[in-house]
């Protein structure tokens, strides 16, 4: 599996593209804010000769679903996300206005992801891990074979997600990280929703929220 990272929107969200050897790819959190950013995304996909077959949302805060309507229009793909994050999806246009931003009404999801569900495309398998605390329906996506986990806004390099938004809870997030993420192999590479990659071992040892 190849992993590509593109950064979009004024909120600088990481959009990940996971490519199978066949050229099929999954998109995690398409953060394209406008059509010009989506043009960048499409050109990248075409330059790599990739075929998008899956769209996943770690959670449905506005910055992580900016591009969902673009993906539906271009590739006829709706997202898979958690039922517990439907509130955030439905309120995303209003939430964007609070930040002085505008966005299209996000499409309804194709389906809902549940904890422990295995999501497949090509030869790639991702296991969904429910990691609430930043939002009620936050999911991480773990590939045991590749030794990587996509944590959304639960765990960052040297930090954790904010918990002051509706559905957030600091104690819940700490438990989620300790019980669902820190139990992964220490060498697991963490790909967060914002910022640079890290490892489970580094965060267990140095993240100030767990010292």
List low-confidence stretches. none
Structural class: alpha/beta
CATH architecture: 4-Layer Sandwich
Order of helices and strands: EEEHEHHEHHEEEEEEEHEEH
- Tell me the name of the CATH class: Alpha Beta
> How many H/I helices?
7
Main β-sheet, spatial strand arrangement? 1-2-3-4-5-6
Gross morphology: globular
Mean pLDDT: 97
Amount of beta strand: 25-35%
Q: How is the CATH topology named? A: Metallo-beta-lactamase, Chain A
Distance between the termini: 33 Å
| Sheet with most strands | 6 strands, mixed
- The radius of gyration over CA amounts to 16 Å
The H-level CATH homologous superfamily, spelled out, is: Ribonuclease Z/Hydroxyacylglutathione hydrolase-like
The overall strand count is 14
How would you describe what is shown here?
- The protein has 211 residues and is an alpha/beta fold.
- The protein has a single domain (2-210), classed as 4-Layer Sandwich (Metallo-beta-lactamase, Chain A).
- 27% of the residues lie in helices and 29% in strands.
- The protein contains 7 helices and 14 strands.
- It has helices at residues 35-47, 62-65, 68-75, 86-90, 92-98, 170-181, 200-206; strands spanning 2-8, 13-19, 24-28, 51-56, 79-81, 111-112, 118-121, 124-130, 139-143, 148-152, 155-156, 159-160, 189-192, 198-199.
- It has a 6-stranded mixed beta sheet, with helices on one face. A 6-stranded mixed beta sheet has the order 7-8-9-10-13-14. Strands 11-12 form a two-stranded antiparallel sheet.
- Helix 1 (35-47) links the parallel strand 3 (24-28) and strand 4 (51-56).
- The relative contact order is 0.14.
- The model has no long low-confidence stretch (mean pLDDT 97).
């Amino acid at each position: 599996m190849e992993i590509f990272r593109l950064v979009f929107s004024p909120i600088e969200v990481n959009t990940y593209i996971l490519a199978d050897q066949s050229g099929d790819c999954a998109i995690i959190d398409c953060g394209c804010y406008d059509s010009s950013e989506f043009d960048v995304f499409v050109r990248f996909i075409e330059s790599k000769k990739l075929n998008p077959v899956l769209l996943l949302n770690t959670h449905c805060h506005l910055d992580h679903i900016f591009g969902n309507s673009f993906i539906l229009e271009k590739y006829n793909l709706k997202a898979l996300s958690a039922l517990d994050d439907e509130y955030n999806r439905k309120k995303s246009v209003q939430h964007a206005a609070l930040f002085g931003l505008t966005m299209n009404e996000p499409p309804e999801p194709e389906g809902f992801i549940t904890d422990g569900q295995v999501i497949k495309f090509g030869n790639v398998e991702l296991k969904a891990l429910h990691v609430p605390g930043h939002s009620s329906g936050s999911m991480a996506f773990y590939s045991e074979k590749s030794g990587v986990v996509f944590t959304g806004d639960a765990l960052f390099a040297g930090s954790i997600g904010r918990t002051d938004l509706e559905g957030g809870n600091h104690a819940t997030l700490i438990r989620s990280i300790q019980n669902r993420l820190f139990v992964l192999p220490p060498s697991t590479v963490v790909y967060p929703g914002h910022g640079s990659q890290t490892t489970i071992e580094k965060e267990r040892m140095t993240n100030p929220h767990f010292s």
